[in-house]
Every structure is written in structure tokens, then in C-alpha cells.
Amino acid sequence: MSDNRRNTPRKDAFQVASLFAESGADAQECLVWDVSATGAQLELAPEVVVPDRFTLQVTAYEPPRRCRVVRREGRRLGVCFEG
């Protein structure tokens, strides 16, 4: 996912975050590679099944963000923030 399709600049993040599915399942850890005002690039363990929409909690100091998957490439996801 080296091509930049976003209209807003990306900022390197390299942070561990928690992904929460709507189904109430346990949180899954992911790595946030980069983030912009409109979305992020995430990486997850290969066995993790990610729904098309979920909530992402990057830090305890930031509010959770609703996400929609826009691109899947192997273990990496491109997501856009909703609302």
C-alpha cells in the first residue's frame, strides 16, 4: 500500500491500537502504520478476521473512531474514518 490515495497528508504513527468489532467480541490488537485526518493504514495478525466496519481505539487520550475498510492487502487494511 505504498500509493497514497488520500486527499489529506499521512503521518507516520507506528502505534499499537485496539480494534473492536460490533459483535461484542474481544478487542484485537493491530499496528497503525500511518494516519491522516480521514483514515489510517493498519496491520493485523493473519488469523484475525476483520469486519467491514469496526471501532478503533488508538490511545486512551483520543476518542474511539468508527472505521470502514476500503482496501485489504494481505495483513494490511486501509480504513476511512466515519462520522
Can you characterise this structure?
The protein has one domain: Thrombin, subunit H (Beta Barrel). Strand 5 and strand 6 (76-82) form a beta hairpin. With 83 residues, it is mainly beta. It has strands at residues 11-21, 28-35, 39-43, 53-57, 65-73, 76-82. The model has no long low-confidence stretch (mean pLDDT 90). It contains no helices and 6 strands. Residues 4-82 form the PilZ domain. InterPro entries: PilZ_domain. It comes from Methylobacterium cerastii.
What is shown here, in short?
The protein is mainly β. It contains no helices and six strands. The protein has a single domain, classed as predicted glycosyltransferase like domains (Thrombin, subunit H, Beta Barrel), CATH 2.40.10.220.
**From the 3D coordinates, which CATH architecture would you assign?**
Beta Barrel
| CATH top-level class | Mainly Beta
Main sheet, how many strands, which sense, barrel?
Answer: 6 strands, antiparallel, barrel
Q: Tell me how many strands there are.
A: 6
Count of alpha/pi helices: 0
CATH superfamily: predicted glycosyltransferase like domains
CATH topology: Thrombin, subunit H
C-alpha end-to-end distance: 24 Å
The ordered string of helix (H) and strand (E) elements is EEEEEE
The helix content is under 10%
Question: Spatial order of the strands in the main sheet?
Answer: 1-2-3-6-5-4
On the 0 to 100 scale, the average pLDDT is 90
